[in-house]
Amino acid sequence: MDKEKVFQMAKTDLQRIIEQLSLDTLTEDVAQSKRYLVFLETLSTLVSPPNLDKQTIGLDEVDEVLHGDGELEEEKGSRVDQLDANTFVFERKLKGGQLQDIDAYVPEKVIRQLGLNQGDYVRATLKKTGEVNSKRKHYFFELVKKGEGKDQDRKVIPYCVVEKDGGLWVCNQTMSGENIKLGELPFTIRIKESEIMEFHLEEGDIVDIAYFADNPSYCRVVWKHHIKPDRYSTPLPSSVYKEKYQSNRKVIENIHLKDKVVTLIGCIDRQAAYRERLTTLGATFQAMDGTEDEQRIAALIKKSNMVIIIIPAVSHNGSATAKKYCKEYNIPFKMCETIGTSTVIHYANNLAKESEYNLSPR
Fold first, then answer.
1. Using H for helix, E for strand and C for coil, what is the string for 11-30?
2. Which end of the chain is more exposed for a tag (fewer CB within 10 A), N or C?
């Protein structure tokens, strides 16, 4: 592998990391990006001998840096063959995972970044920690090949809302407002005190809960999302909002959203904030939480100029019904992956622009 190929490989992987940035893994993504930049800067100072290879340029660090899910397809086979001794079968645990052959723990964050499932083939490259007497080994991980496993025994309840019930920490509902159920019966998940401390949990935090199908009474918090539903606050008299709306409307009306009917589905806790922003921009606001009957959902969508579906805070049935009628009535729509007000407004503005230029938003 020559110097230019190493550079192109690192560049491609860095671009992929930046394109896939997300709030849930932002810290790890930024740290990984910095390692790539340091590596590229170092690579630019190296002098390439005629037969440059991993040993002659001392690139043990190459595999430490290039451990993400990005890899050049044309070299995938050769890289797997060369490093086959460092590739192991991944075993999914309730939280995190394991490479049993080398007794290496794979953190939940890495599993989510690489999209790992039971039986995947994962390359583990030992980190140089500088800790001479350290018994615990640390690795960089890279997905080499997908296996056939699908974590069938492991179940996940996403976007659970943390509550405090007397002296206990529990989850009774998801962020979409649906009751957590085991079969057809309501199910309360009890969160351990150790998990409260580990994840620094507070009331209103949003977490993913995992359990094994044969032992649902033993649940674990496996992930904390950095989003929160708005806390309820007593609304002010309507005259206050009316005066504020009238005083601001002429100043910041949006020409694209003016007189447009915007329908939001999901995240009922934040709809007051969405309403205030959109109406101030000149739009007419409609809202549903996705649990309404199909006839009502269809009626409101039919009156809309655009629809935004808040994915983290709407049920699968509500989302599917909304998409069905958006397509049936040819109403532009967007699937929003976050509950942030600015993102929702941005999506609405883009939908309005796309409609003006007859562009497809899907």
1. HHHHHHHHHCCCHHHHHHHH
2. C
Return d(Cα 231, Cα 225) in angstroms, integer: 16
The full set of domains in the chain, from first to last, is: 3-145 (no CATH), 154-225 (2.40.50), 238-356 (3.40.50.10700)
Q: Which helix (H) or strand (E) holds 317?
A: helix 316-328
Interval 28-78: pLDDT, tens: 667 677 777 767 766 666 544 444 444 433 444 444 444 444 443 444 443
DSSP states along 147-215: -S---TTEEEEEEEEEEEETTEEEEEEETTSPBPEETTEE-PEEEPHHHHHHHT--TT-EEEEEEETTE
Single-letter code of the amino acid located at 274: Y
Phi, psi of 153 (to 5 degrees): -85, -15
What tens digit of pLDDT does each residue of 260-284 get? 999 999 877 777 888 888 888 889 9
Q: Name the strand (E) or helix (H) holding 132.
A: none
User: Cα 143 vs. chain centroid, distance in angstroms?
Assistant: 19
